[in-house]
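quick one
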Amino acid sequence: MTVSTIWVVAEPSGDSFTAASLELLSAARDLASNVAAITWGEGGSFAALAGEYGASTLYDVGDLRGALPGAPIASAIEALIDGGGAPDAIFVPASYDGRDMAGRLSARLDRPVLTNVIGLEDGEGLVSEHAVFGGSLTVKAKFTGAGPGLFVVRAKSFNAEPMGGGPAQVVAAPVGETGATAHAVIAASHVEERTGPKLEDAAVVVSGGRGLGDAGAYAMIEQIAQLLHGAAGASRAIVDAGWVPYSHQVGQTGKTVKPLVYLACGISGATQHMVGMKGSKNIVAINRDGDAPIFQIADLGIVGDVHKVLPALIDELKARG
Ligand SMILES: Cc1cc2nc3c(=O)[nH]c(=O)nc-3n(C[C@H](O)[C@H](O)[C@H](O)COP(=O)(O)OP(=O)(O)OC[C@H]3O[C@@H](n4cnc5c(N)ncnc54)[C@H](O)[C@@H]3O)c2cc1C
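structure w/ flavin-adenine dinucleotide:
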């Protein structure tokens, strides 16, 4: 290992870290001998979880008193670095708060950020992989110069695997100067209503595209997702058309999914869509155009009309109970 220390921004989510944070902790411990997690809220209670995923230290910023995390966490990280013992790299999940934090940290540390990272390896320092041109090309990048490298990493780039380590040592990480940013506070937050698994975590994802014809036909996608105990996804075309909320979007500017089965219904297979689902284990596509690009990556292709195939599939799934 040529990398000694990596810090991972571990975003709290209920009584755990977000899945993307756990993925980054798992990746970090494969790349460096010392891994620390940085978290906030009820941070102290995450010592066991952080340790289980490979962190030996948990920097606990504590209660943010309703502030958006970007500014205070960037400030706390800067203070930790100023206190000595800067890491070689800081991994940040590519969430809204993570991106906000990374931008602020970049300005504070006067270091560039590598964003949209989809892979990391050790090659005389960290080498990152990035999908460019809508995922049609992968480029590699590396930091030069001193100081921590800032990496903003896309969800599902790594597997989250516990390693059974003991609790991390908790170290308080106070927030430094944040200027006027403390004036912006979270007034209310809502947990998105859903039945069934989260899109990013579902073993089966059933997605619909413009080929469905109209918003009403999306009910078939939801029904099949429910029958298969999966989640319903969408192409951007139907999100932009207002048929489904953005939270359903799969692709470059939406979510990255890696289910066991991805069923694409009436989706052409634009590179920007495929970059978000091509890591799925089994891809099944239904499209009436036999030349649709989605068939190039499909394991099973059905050339047919979604208005015929999907009702037949629903009947069959219902018959099987
Ligand atoms: C910067 C940028 C970012 C983007 N990010 C994303 C992203 O994150 N996710 C994303 O999905 N897209 C994204 N896009 C948009 C992307 O380029 C495509 O426009 C979009 O994915 C197309 O959606 P679609 O496949 O549903 O629609 P279309 O491309 O219109 O395809 C519809 C398909 O349905 C088929 N069809 C039509 N009728 C039927 C029928 N009755 N039965 C069966 N098949 C039928 C057609 O043959 C066609 O293949 C992005 C674009 C840009 C420029």
